[in-house]
Amino acid sequence: MKPGDMVRHAPAGMVGNRVGLVVDITEKKCWRTSAQGKKINWDIIEPELHAVVLYPHNDGTIDIPVIELEVVYEGR
Predict the structure, then answer these.
(1) 3-class DSSP state for residue 44?
(2) Report field, pTM of the whole predicted structure over 0.90
(3) How far apart are the C-alpha atoms of 47 and 31, rounded to whole Å?
(4) If both were cysteines, with which of 19, 20, 32, 60 could 53 make a disulfide (CB 3.0 to 4.6 Å apart)?
(5) pLDDT in tens, 20-60
(6) Which pLDDT score, from 0 to 100, does residue 35 have?
(7) Is the torsion defined by CA of 57, 60, 6, 46 positive or negative?
(8) CB under 8 Å to 66, separation ≥6 — which residues?
(9) Pairwise CA distance, residues 15 & 1, whole Å
């Protein structure tokens, strides 16, 4: 995944999500309560790749973990 790719947010069980444009790639820490529990400890997790995605229905961008996206069209 790289800037210019068209992506769809693809969490398990979701179908028909809108397509957005990746404008940047960044790293952020992400705490997953379902897997890691309710008590947050930022010291034990590593940053993971996030795509900065622009959707036509939003006024700005949204940062989404790369593992939750699927590429629907690769840009140049």
Answers:
(1) helix
(2) no
(3) 10
(4) 20
(5) 999 999 999 999 888 888 999 999 999 999 999 999 888 89
(6) 86
(7) negative
(8) 1, 25, 48, 49, 50, 51
(9) 20
- Dist CA 55 CA 69 (whole Å): 13
Cβ(75)–Cβ(5) below 8 Å:
yes
CB burial readout 18-41, b (16+ within 10 A) else e: eebbbeeeeeeebeeeeeeeeeee
Query: What separation in angstroms does the CA of 52 have from each of 37, 38, 41, 60?
Result: 26, 26, 24, 10
Q: Are 65 and 5 in contact (CB under 8 A)?
A: no
Residue 72 DSSP SS3: strand
